[in-house]
Amino acid sequence: MDSHVVQAGLGDLLDKVKDGERLSFDDGVRLYRCPDLLAVGYLANIVRERLNGDKAYFIYNQHINYSNVCTNLCKFCAFGKDKSSPLAYEMNVDDVVAKVRERLDEPITEIHMVGGIHPDLPYSYYLELLQGIKSVRPTVHIQAFTCVEIAHLAEIAGQSVSDTLKDLQAAGLGSIPGGGAEVFSPRIRQLTCEKKLSGTGWLEVAATAHRFGLHTNATMLYGHIETVEERVEHLEMLRSTQDQTGGFLAFIPLAFHPKNTEMAQCSRTTGIEDLKNIAVARCYLDNFPHIKAYWVMIGPKLAQVALSFGADDMDGTVKEEVITHMAGADTDQAIGSDQLIRLIREAGRQPVERDTLYNVLQVF
Ligand code: V47
Questions:
Q1: Taking the complete model, does pTM exceed 0.70, yes or no?
Q2: Which atom of ligand 1 has the smallest separation from the CA of 78?
Q3: 250-300 pLDDT, tens digit each
Q4: 155, burial (CB in 10 Å: exposed 0-12, middle 13-18, buried 19+)
Q5: What pLDDT digit, counting tens, does each position of 219-252 carry?
Q6: Nearest residue CA, atom 10 of ligand 1?
Q7: Considering only CA atoms, which residue is closest to atom 14 of ligand 1?
Q8: What's the average pLDDT block by block, 10 residues per block, for the chain (364 residues)?
Q9: How far is the C-alpha of 102 from the C-alpha of 316, rounded, in Å?
Q10: Ligand 1 pocket residue status of 256, Cβ below 6 Å
Q11: Domains parsed from the chain with CATH numbers
């Protein structure tokens, strides 16, 4: 395979990857532009196995989207709705608690909870959501509120992001998911989500959380109007923030689903693009411990293949995914742990059930 990589014109990058040398911006662009997916995947697999061996992680989790009401109304999003829309909904604290109670008999260790930027839910609501979940499932880890939501909560509370994080943590917040990052480029934000927190604002909230001791994830929404350079710039900004704080756990490339969005003219991503994004991210983000292949967005079969192209995590059982399904995802809304274990085993990896912070719970 080494000679294959050399023939693909990536011999110098093979040396760099083997020596654990950091890739430059131009190297990242070259990887994206290289038409030889196997060569790029081979490099990513070297990094993947160096960091995570043969392990492939999954988690028992439950997704809850407390409300789709949103003032940002990003053009790529089919989930967020104006408050006046007949499709708008918001759950009260009891509704959310009931969702958690419904699944108390399942071995769920994480609740992943995000929503839109709601114009008038009070600050106390968000604290009560966390407290409510903890009251029925005290040991569950709540990974909730994107950096965009956290910035909004700080604003409505009229206080700093750190003071807000302190309140949220006291109410039960365990960590912060990676959503809302989109593509950091101001050009892309201007064209697709002009009302949203800026890329630098997103990174500042993440860095504040890290300094405060809270881990976060990071995402990139790819496959719409962004350029390859804008993708690498996004990865570069994440890598340099991680150099400073070390608080990111996982990076999750998110494949754009155009249906029911204002960007419905875009085509869905292809398998090659999906694997390429995972592989380049694995090579470039040398300081991120984990890369997730989110099966909801790329399908369980491709996520399985991604375990040999840089990914070491398949996310989890999920249950009731809404954001991608509103935008036309044709995957199931949940997957069984037995199915995840089978997919991982068949990929020649070792299935490991983890908790949110990647502590090993069970090895299969
Ligand atoms: O923030 C919105 C994206 C995100 C679309 O942290 C879309 O472990 C595709 O962040 N097509 C929410 N994507 C999902 C998310 C996530 C998922 C799984 C695990 C983790 C984690 C995070 O989905 C949003 C936005 O970036 N999104 N619309 C769309 N049409």
A1: yes
A2: 30
A3: 999 999 999 999 999 999 999 999 999 999 999 999 999 999 999 999 999
A4: middle
A5: 999 999 999 999 999 999 999 999 999 999 999 9
A6: 179
A7: 179
A8: 92 97 98 98 98 97 97 97 97 97 96 97 98 98 98 98 98 98 98 98 98 97 98 98 98 97 96 98 98 96 98 90 87 87 97 98 96
A9: 18
A10: yes
A11: 52-363 (3.20.20.70)
Task: Show Cβ contacts of residue 80 under 8 Å, excluding neighbours closer than 6 positions.
Answer: 68, 69, 70, 72, 73, 74, 116
Residue with CA closest to ligand 1 atom 13: 256
**Residue whose CA is at the smallest distance from ligand 1 atom 15:** 179
* Ligand 1 near 252 CB (within 6 A): yes
d(CA 270, CA 351): 26
Ligand 1 pocket, residue 177 CB under 6 Å: yes
**C-alpha distances in Å from residue 326, one per residue of 69, 97, 99:** 14, 23, 20
219 lines ligand 1 (CB under 6 A): yes
Strand, coil or helix: 19 = coil
Pocket flag, ligand 1, residue 323 (CB < 6 Å): yes
Short-list 225, 228, 229, 230, CA closest to 186? 230
253 lines ligand 1 (CB under 6 A): no
Q: Whose CA is nearest to atom 27 of ligand 1?
A: 77
Nearest atom in ligand 1 to 181's CA: 26
Q: Are 193 and 262 in contact (CB under 8 A)?
A: no
Question: One-letter amino acid identity for 56?
Answer: A
Is 61 touching ligand 1 by the criterion CB < 6 Å? Answer: no
Question: What is the sign, positive or negative, of the torsion defined by CA atoms of 146, 282, 248, 206?
Answer: negative
In ligand 1, the atom with minimum distance to the C-alpha of 180 is 1
Cα(323) to ligand 1 centroid in Å equals: 7
